[in-house]
Structures are given as structure tokens and as C-alpha cells.
Amino acid sequence: MRQTIVALIAWITACCCNPTLISASILVDQDENCREWAEQGECEANPDYMWENCQKSCADVKAEEDTSTANQHSFFELDALDIDEKLFNFSQLKGKTTLIVNVASYCGYTESHYRGLVELYESLKDSGKFEILAFPCNQFGAQEPKTCPEIKRFAHQKGVRFHMMNKIDVNGPNTHKVYNFLKEATGVKRISWNFATYFVVSPSGEIEAFSGTEPHELRDTIVDLMNEEL
């Protein structure tokens, strides 16, 4: 059975097929909870079990995620709502180094990471070559439960003056197109927690992911990119 599933996945990848077009007689779920698990990102977190027992749900969710970025070929073609629900076009980030992270207000990492982000931004903002986009997310321990206006007030009290974005999902079928693009570009399968993965985008749009790090540890990488000639 395991060999069959591996071969099936290899065939889908090799043919570049949309998994939703595969016959339901081939892709089936063995558990009624498969869809819920897939939406929670378990296909990436536990691929061996999920792709053997929840084939259809994993394929459906993957197809939904792929569709959201089908027309985006560059980071600078993306856009997203900010925390005030105003559209923010990423084209204005071209020529700058950008740091992106998912945040939460009630996480054990909140204090240190917000402090580090504020210090990093304040030390580099006058160059005009550095931006931070912080995306609130409530998918990890329900640690970002408040509304966007409340999150904005909280962040402002922490000293935040960089871009706070609208609350989004970063895993599952409702993953925002920005995070689908970032994960696809860097090979990150799943965001594991609040503040867990930082994406650094170069002035030309190259993207690199850093996991298990603090903002200050990214300073040298960011400064080097800021000094690069386009």
C-alpha cells in the first residue's frame, strides 16, 4: 500500500496534474476526520500517515492552496489587506529588503519577538530600504483571538510602527495567497507556530526562510541585502 501511494504522488508530481482531477476512485479518505486534519496542515506535518489514509483530502487542500497563487509569478505582484483593511500592494516593496512573520498577542514568544522586531525596525527604518510585514494569525493555540482594531492597539502599545497586516491563515485551505507564495518559494511545508518562521525578501524579490530564530539574529543578513545593488 505504501509503495502504491508513493508511486501515485510521484505520478501526480511528474505529470503536473491538478489533484482534484484525479478520480475519486483512486483518491479516497479512510477517516471521517480527514478533511479537518488536512485543513489543519497535517498533510505537511504527518505526510506518511495522511497521504496513506487521507489521500482525497490532502489532494483537495493542496489543489486549493495552489490555485490561490496560480497567477502570481513574482513577490511584487502580490497584495494583501493591512490591519485597517486597506489594500497594500507589494510592488511598493521592490528595491527594499522585507521581513515577514506571523504574529500573535498571547504567545510565550510575543514579548521577545515584538521587542526584537521593534528594535530591528527602529535601527534600520531611516535607510528607507527596510520594511516589516507582520501578519496576525490565530491558528496556533488560539493566541490571536481579538479583532484587528484590538490587535492594532496592542501592537502600538508594544512600540510597533512597521506594517501590521490583516489577520490571516498561514496553513490549510484558507491559507492567504502571500503565505502560499512564500512557502512555495522557499520549500517550507508548514508554519509550525507563532513567530516560528521569518521570511526575508531581497530587493529583487528573492526569498529565504529562517526558522527558530530571533529578529536580531537576522540583522546581518538584512543589512547585507540592503547594501546589494539591484
List keywords for this structure.
230 residues; alpha/beta; Glutaredoxin; 2 domains; five-stranded mixed beta sheet; two-stranded antiparallel sheet; 7 strands
Folded structure, characterized:
With 230 residues, this protein is an alpha/beta fold. It has 2 domains: 2-68, no CATH class; 75-226, Glutaredoxin (3-Layer(aba) Sandwich), CATH 3.40.30.10. Helices cover 38% and strands 14% of the residues. The protein contains 9 helices and 7 strands, in the order H-H-H-H-H-E-E-E-H-E-H-E-H-E-E-H. The protein has helices spanning 2-15, 34-39, 42-45, 47-53, 55-68, 110-124, 148-157, 177-186, 219-226, and strands at 79-81, 87-89, 97-103, 130-136, 163-164, 197-201, 207-211. It is globular, with a radius of gyration of 19 Å. The protein starts with a helix and ends with a helix.
Instruction: Please identify the oligomeric state.
Output: single chain
CATH class of the largest domain: Alpha Beta
Whole-number total of structural domains: 2
- Helical content, roughly? 25-40%
* Count of β-strands: 7
Which architecture of the largest domain does the CATH hierarchy give at level 2?
Answer: 3-Layer(aba) Sandwich
Topology:
Blueprint: H1 2-15, H2 34-39, H3 42-45, H4 47-53, H5 55-68, E1 79-81, E2 87-89, E3 97-103, H6 110-124, E4 130-136, H7 148-157, E5 163-164, H8 177-186, E6 197-201, E7 207-211, H9 219-226
Parallel strand pairs: 3-4, 4-5
Antiparallel strand pairs: 1-2, 3-6, 6-7
Provide a concise account of the structure shown:
This protein has helices at residues 2-15, 34-39, 42-45, 47-53, 55-68, 110-124, 148-157, 177-186, 219-226; strands at residues 79-81, 87-89, 97-103, 130-136, 163-164, 197-201, 207-211.
